[in-house]
Amino acid sequence: MINTSGGVSNGNLSTTGPLSRTVFTAGLVGSGQIEASFSGLAKTPSGAITVQPGPATRLRITGANAAPRAGEAHQIDVTALDVAGNIATSYAGPKTLRFSGANPSTRPVTPPTISQGATNVPFGQDVNVSFTAGKMVTTTVPATGRMTLYRDETVTIHVLDVNANIGSAGADGFNVNVAPSDRFKLSIYRKGAEGQPAVTEIITAGVPISLTIRAEDAFGNVVAGYPSNTGPQREYRFTGAANAPDGTPPSVIDDDGAIRLINTQNVDLDFVDSVATATNGRNGVMTLFNAGSYTIHITQQNGAENGFSSTNGGGLSVQVLPSPNQTFAWVLHSPQTNGQVFTGINSLTVQDIYSNTITNYDAALNPVTITAGGGLSGTVSFASPHGDNVLDLSSDFAGGVADLGALGMTYLGQSGSGTLTAVAGSRTATSSPVIINPGPPASLQIQAKTPLTTSSATVSAGSPVTLTLTLFDQSGNVATGYDSSASLTFTGVPNPPPNGQPAPVVTDSGGVSQPFGQPTSLSFVDGRSQVSGNANGRMTIFQASGPSPYSIEATAQLNLPGAPTIGTAPGKELLVTVNPGEVAQARIAGPTNAPWQTYTQFTIEALDAFNNPTSVAVDTQFTLSSDRTGMFALDEGGTIQTTTFTILAGSGSVRFYYRPEELGNHVLSGTASVPVTTWTVAVP
Hints:
Helix content is 0%, strand content 44%. By secondary structure, the chain is mainly β.
């Protein structure tokens, strides 16, 4: 039998082969002897044997505080051990360690740390330390090895030598039970996300969400004993959310199921074990309506903890998306001008039912058609590349808003007051009334005032016609916005007249008669010219029109930038029938040559004052004569010779025959109740 004695224990001896050879393995360091005994032989001790520690095979963590509070730093020690658990004194010098086992806190996310002198190194990262005789040196200033944990949890802390790949497996770890720190804040969570790191919750306007509110320390750990059992029922005020653009206020349902308004009304909540959780649609069900990103806070309003709130990092960050129920909102500047791009602020905004803007609206996926109505019968169009009344490009709506003026929106048609309607699928919205004023003049109409304003007139030659000229825009609306002069040139009556009549004239704005074909300045008010006295459009025509009326037209050079010229619109001419006036003179007419001693036909014609053939109201007698020898007769054969001829009432002429008896020029003349123009006929 072989035993050990002295200071060495827990060793063992084993023999292999003959008894003369054995192998001794020691478990603890120290000095001792080995003795052998065998039946019948005396015991024989060995000399003194000293056992040294082996190389380090593992690390062990120890500490004085196994129940720290969150956020409190406390010292730990790390010791290197050999395979038998002896301190591995040969483990010395610089070492790189990595700690693990503890989790970060949640609000805020704060990782556990180990101090490396003045630096706090998060768990999982390399910590550069020094060992002496198998123990981590902690006497640096500031101290190395001060551990700070932040999460309320029971865990085992481990360490690893990154280079030697030895660590604190199993029981060599350090078991700690971290307790919450002091009460610090209220924290708001979306129900189901309690104790998780703070995130921005994505919610939809008008859709309720259930909340959980917890009393926590500075690191997001629940603190027991809130609220205290003394004092009244605690009341809370939620803040941070604005009303929706349409005025709908945000709200929270309290523990009794009552709806309380955020920002203005207090809310009763039931806390159990420092936690209030929405249940059965009450005790913290929140509904927000204003789209956007903001933070919801809660503050206690009474009791021992009055003022306790979430403002120290416990607020709920939200991103409120617009409701999927969408419509359009119009902004139109009024008035606008027919045929011209809308001016001022004019927009079409895609909104939800709470008037939140749908910022990602894509007209390429959801085209929008714009139509006019409610008193406007014209059409709407947009500039190129659209060309019609449909917004169908992704770029048409920027941030949910279409700038209609920038897109070249134009209305063309009947002027007046009406509305515009936007339609995209099931979305329909009609604007408030907008006034469309007539556009600039594009054509004109000439009418006579007799006294009614008409498109035709019948007058006697030389009698004035009162003209009314009306300017129209391109859609036929009276151009009421034109208050200026215009230079007009009238046409439709021959000038000069063929029979020596005076030229047709129109009086200008100064009362001066201007002949047809010459510029005539007229004044317009609200798109119309009106005669004033004898000025600004009194027309006089001296030549009778005959069987067909004159069609009076005009061109007008406008007093506008670029001096545009417009003309009479088709069908807007003035038809004027000019009848001869009363008989004022007569003339003898016929051939300029006549044969000698032969009866040749001539005519006595009744004329008005302007040489227009006319008829006589009563029988009118003419006495003819010649300055040469000749004979007058009623018939071509000369059987009824006379010098007296009568134009019967209602007729405008009478025939007679003349036979020259001399050669040379014969001047035929006559007398009557009106002057008679002579006629010269040559007799060769």
